[in-house]
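User: Okay, second chain of the day. Same drill as before: sequence in, structure tokens out.
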Amino acid sequence: MNRITILFTWALVSVFTSPAWSRELSVLFLGNSYTHLPGYGTAEDPALPRMIQEIAKSIEPDLHINYEFNVPGGYSFERHYYNDQTKVLITKSYDHVILQGHSIEALELTPWWERSGNRGVKSFSTYLPKILDIVFQNNSDVTLYVNWGWGLQHEMLTDDHPGLRFPEGSDKEGQTWFGGDKDTLQNQIDESYRFHTQNHNAKLALVGRAWLKLQENGIVSESELYRADWSHATLLGGYISALILTRDALGMDISKNTFVPAGISPEKAKSILEALIN
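Assistant: Same drill. Structure tokens below.
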């Protein structure tokens, strides 16, 4: 068999054995432990991007997602803004960018928190727009992963916590910084994200709002979503977040999803999926 025949044969084999169509997506994840999901991933190997990758692959088998990330525990947008790795990542171009802030930085916090190093919305209102300004220089598809509020059993939401209420002399004297109930808390988070992204064409993936909807519909319980600290997500909570981000950030039809992580029952996953697509 001569060289030309060999090349022709190879070309025919390639035509008939290669996928008819495939595509690649590049995705940047910036966030913290709500993206790397303690217990299931780490800052060096985050679990949420892996789950999104699996969900997307089940919907579109020939899709290849290549992702970069920087998700150190406890990071706010202010800390990301001054982080050397983030500085490099946010100047690059991606098909999709997913940004996630500190769990309570979108909120107006009592002075106790600022003394503890968390400036809340004072920082959020400055550094989220700064990061968006840079990201949008080379990217057009940017999504804010809007987190859930802490469970009301969180140790820092108890009546005797020193940072719970605004102090004497404040225009909110005696009020709690989180509003008093989980629906109000979630509204505060969602509205802050809306307000502070209004000058940018960023999408909002309302993960926390979806968590509440699933609870209100009796599909999941609060305790199924939170780890023991009443802040971080369980595997189930993370899976729900991944489904929402696949739908809202990547724009994929999650009704076609077949991926269910080991440890979640197919029946529970089906109920969740049906609620998210209706």
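The chain is about 45% helix and 10% strand.

User: Thanks, on to the next one.
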